Each structure stands twice: as structure tokens, then as C-alpha cells.
Amino acid sequence: MLLKAVFWDLDGTLIDSEPLWHDGEIEIAHANGGEWNEDLGWQCSGTPVPSVARHMIERGCKLSVEEIDKQLKDYVFNAEVTRLPWIPGVQDVLRSLKDAGIPSMLVTTSPRRMAENIMKQADGLLAGYVCGDDPFEHKPNPAPYLAAAAKLGIAPEDMAKCVVLEDSSVGLQAGAASGATLIAQTGWIRTDTSGLGQFASIDSYDGIDAAALDAFVRQRLGK
């Protein structure tokens, strides 16, 4: 296989967690004098929590950015510890990659405790992670993806032989800037993410395995 590694975003790519974030936003906003709804949540999808918090404050939430940040991350973390909402079929893709000897790495802006919870529940299917608490610029900067590659000993010039799977606009921009073969997962996001540098788009994991991801790389490189 030409494929060297696969780098996975978390929310909307590995797990269907966006609804958890939106539920938390609504609960926190309404409990503290604000107005918020699912549509507003989706408009902020993929952006850092402090940015979401500022939008919530603009709509009447009386908490500080720091208070919203803590309460929202606590809400989602506790929900994910109770039950991790894996996207259908994604664990089969991870198993196929592991069986083929291709490492999968988690690359998320979420805090370390969330990344560690994913690692624990992934049962060895993920080789490692880069998270929002690591000392790198956040997406849309490509630094997290390049750092994940470096952890595997993959040089920047070999990123085209790696696949990045992303769903949000900032994530797709980061993946494209990294030089990787970028695949957009469109099945669990409600915003338009077209034209952001993706090589291909998929809306489920039907028919996706190590061979299929290797084929995307070969097609991109003309090999």
C-alpha cells in the first residue's frame, strides 16, 4: 500500500457528538438567561468553544466565556464517558486499517481528557492523538496534522500518502494545508463544506476500508 497513515478528526468524523455539544449549549444558555437553538449551534460547528461562548453571551447568556467553556466541556465529556456515539461503520474502518498495518491517529481540538476517553474506548484501534491542549496552533492551521505525522515519523513531504478525514470547514482547511489526501465526511454535518480543498467527499463509511483509502491516495498521485 502507498497509504502511510490516516488522521481522524473527532466530532462528526469518528463520533456523532455535535448533537451533544448543541444540547449542552442550549441547556447552559437557557439556564442563564440566554437564547440558543440547534440551528445556532450548527452555525458554530467546528469552531473553538470560547468562540461559541462569545456568541452565546451575545444572545443573552450571563456567564463568562470561561464559565461557559468549562460547563460545556464538562457536559459533553460526561455524556461521552457514559456512551460514546460512534458513527456507524467507523470502527470497522479502523479495524481494517489496523489489520493492514496502517496507523490511525486522532487529531482533535478537544481537550486532553476527551481525547484520552476516546483512546480508552477505541480498544487499541487508534495509535495516538494530538489534542487541543497540545502546544500547537489550532485548526485551520495545519500544525496539528503535521505534529501527528511527526509522531509517526512521517515527513511533511510524504503527507500526500496520508489521508485526513474531516467534516468541518476549519478542519478541512487544516487538512488541505497539511498536504494530505483530504476526504470530507459530509454525512453528519449540516453546513456546506464544499470547495475547501478536499480530494473527495463521502457521506457514510459504506464501502470504506484500508484498500479504499489507499485507492484515494493512488488516484491523487496517479499511481
From TrEMBL:
Keyword Hydrolase among UniProt keywords: yes
Pfam families reported in the protein's UniProt record: Hydrolase
Keyword check for Iron: no
Gene3D superfamilies the record matches: HAD superfamily/HAD-like, Putative phosphatase, domain 2
Alphabetical UniProt keywords: Hydrolase
Top-level division of the source organism's lineage: Bacteria
CDD domains found in the cross-reference section: HAD_BPGM-like (cd07505)
GO molecular-function terms, A-Z: hydrolase activity
InterPro entries assigned to the protein according to its UniProt record, in alphabetical order: HAD-like_sf, HAD-SF_hydro_IA, HAD_sf, PGP-like_dom2
UniProt cross-references to PANTHER family, sorted A to Z: 2-DEOXYGLUCOSE-6-PHOSPHATE PHOSPHATASE 2, PSEUDOURIDINE-5'-PHOSPHATASE
Name recorded for this polypeptide: HAD family hydrolase
Species annotation: Bifidobacterium scaligerum
